[in-house]
Amino acid sequence: MAMEAEASPIVTRLGLISDMTIFPSKSTPFKAYRGSYKDCNLVVITNGKDNVHGTGVDNCGTVPAALCTFLALQRLNGVVDIVINAGTCGGFQEKGARIGDVYLTTASAYHDRRIPIDVPDFVAYGIGRIESLPVHKLSKEINAKMGVCTTGNSLDKHDIDDQIMRANNASVKDMESAAISWACRLHDIPHFGVKVVTDIVDGSRPTEEEFLENLHHAAQELEGALSKIIEYCCGRSLDEL
Amino acid sequence: MAMEAEASPIVTRLGLISDMTIFPSKSTPFKAYRGSYKDCNLVVITNGKDNVHGTGVDNCGTVPAALCTFLALQRLNGVVDIVINAGTCGGFQEKGARIGDVYLTTASAYHDRRIPIDVPDFVAYGIGRIESLPVHKLSKEINAKMGVCTTGNSLDKHDIDDQIMRANNASVKDMESAAISWACRLHDIPHFGVKVVTDIVDGSRPTEEEFLENLHHAAQELEGALSKIIEYCCGRSLDEL
Predict the structure, then answer these.
(1) Domain boundaries, chain A
(2) For B74-84, how does the pLDDT look when each residue is reduced to its tens digit (9 = 90+)?
(3) Which of B26, B47, B53, B151 to substitute to test the interface with A, most A CBs within 10 Å?
(4) In chain B, what residues touch A155 (CB-CB under 8 Å)?
(5) Could you count the other beta carbons within 10 Å of the beta carbon of residue B221?
(6) CATH superfamily of the domain spanning A4-240
(7) B37-to-A105, B10, B34, B164 alpha-carbon distances in Å
(8) Strand pairing partners for A146?
(9) Is there a catalytic annotation at residue B209?
């Protein structure tokens, strides 16, 4: 999870305890919380706060997300069954998204890595589409929608982003999924995303306004969805999801 | 260095040998070459080729660059004096840049992380400006220009990129510097960039055309500049640069 505000409800609900042995290096700002539910071991990781630029804000975006995921999987080598990338997102109303909706990802792809050199295929590398673990039964069980998550390092978007997000067939938009998926693929670990809609990408209001207004409520929604997901996934094999 | 084409002339010139003990994990695509010059130990690392999306192209962009840099510094903990981020770039003619020019970086910053939430300061986090090690004596010695490098994940750019690149006061534009600088700062290792101009950002020709036309020649220029930089830096303390 990228932000503390997104993580804190589920950390509290499950009684997870801070465990910095997962990120032993003093070089990283990342945080980890550990605990269990029934016979499942759970680890929540967050990107921590910015101590490089001195802003103290959450380390959102693709670079910290990929590094945090990679290092956690390296440290927990051999004991991770699945990565669930949980967070908030923008939703596309033309795909039926509404504020508060819970989405499970079918795939992730970038909309801000435009590399228009097609021989060899830098275009496809730039888009960087990665399929999620199929979780259709889970989505039915928890009554979640499903769709592609498009990723970029900006909270807002402009005309060219719009074109590429549409080409990505995106239902939701975030700032981390494609990078987390890449780090999971490097370690060959199954993954999917659970995303709660805080704002409408193709609506009339500025993203930052809607995002701030709905972040707190969405984090509560996310905790509810994650609880159901953990309940359903624990004790089930991947192909039962 | 991001691309094999950028790295290969200097690897050959210095007779560096592939050393995969620096990236022992099979999870990463990164490559390392090791050797020495006079009494200096040298390691060249590259981002390797894309094996996740199946394109086989160089893993360019911020995410692989940050992970590659972080892991190499973690592995070489305690023995790295300086990181030199070497590669090609676009140049701004309004700042006096011409194709083939060699630039040393004074700072790096992002132009594609727009996070318009200013309390707390997500805007500054998004821009992510990081100062380079001051290398004014070196720049005089090798007759290089100096300036800010602006970083984004796209080879091309659009109007909003233009505005932010100008606000960043950029002389050159690349796809990795800000991310590499961040990874260096996490490890508290001094760093600067050496960048050879392949294309004019604020000119009339499409970036990808000029880039492909000039990449080979720029890689040769880069090898020449790096040889002079290594010659000058070896045996000198950081404040002599």
Answers:
(1) 4-240
(2) 999 999 999 99
(3) B53
(4) 114-117, 122
(5) 20
(6) Nucleoside phosphorylase domain (3.40.50.1580)
(7) 50, 12, 10, 40
(8) A104
(9) no
